[in-house]
Amino acid sequence: MDQLPQQPHYPDTSQYGTQFPAQKTNGMAIASLVSGILGLTMCAGVGSVFALIFGYIGRGQIKRSQGTEGGSGMAMTGIVLGWIGTILTILIFALLIGGAITLFNWSQSDDFDDVVDKGVGFIAEEALEEIDESDADCFPIEVHPQEGGSTSRKGRRHGTTHLH
Fold first, then answer.
1. pLDDT one-digit tens code per residue, 15-67
2. Which phi and psi angles does 153 have, rounded to 5°?
3. Are 28 and 61 in contact (CB under 8 A)?
4. pTM for the whole thing?
5. How far apart, in whole angstroms, are the C-alpha atoms of residue 158 and residue 161?
């Protein structure tokens, strides 16, 4: 019978060195990374603040764990994303508030009234021109004279004008 050569037997080396327990990832570091991503995508402001809180707590826990917890890179990434999201949120709010103040101040000026009057007049003129230039079938408009004066209006039906 053919026998396979036996594998050499190696002694157990655990008695010669220090065994390190498996390193687990810190939960706060994971929460910081997820919050940082959400803070930049969906939950602007709130997610970024949570990313900062979870990131700094997670980094502190990882340092105190004496090597039993990992995830320092995730916590740092969450902190960076949290600061970016916080700064962007502050800038957006500052621009919105500045724009609102500018619009409010402008709306209180005489220029605003002039612009609104011109805009409304322009829109009305354009609408009337479109009605006059349209090829749509229109029924004659009948206007009856009122007290003290005669009134005549034009009505169109297939390009003809009817006066009453």
1. 656 666 678 999 999 999 999 999 999 888 899 999 999 999 999 999 999 88
2. -130, 155
3. yes
4. 0.55
5. 9
Q: How many domains does the chain have?
A: 2
Q: How many CB atoms lie within 10 A of CB 62?
A: 23
The string of pLDDT tens digits covering residues 96-123 is 999 888 888 877 777 777 777 777 777 7
Q: Of the residues 107, 122, 151, which one is the last residue of a structural domain?
A: 107
Q: At what angle do helices 27-41 and 46-64 cross, to 10 degrees?
A: 160
Residues forming a β-bridge with 25: 70
| Tokens linked to 101 | 């103040």
| Contact status, residue 131 vs residue 119, Cβ threshold 8 Å | no
Q: β-pairing, 160-163 with 154-157?
A: antiparallel
Residue-range definition of the domain harbouring residue 128:
113-163
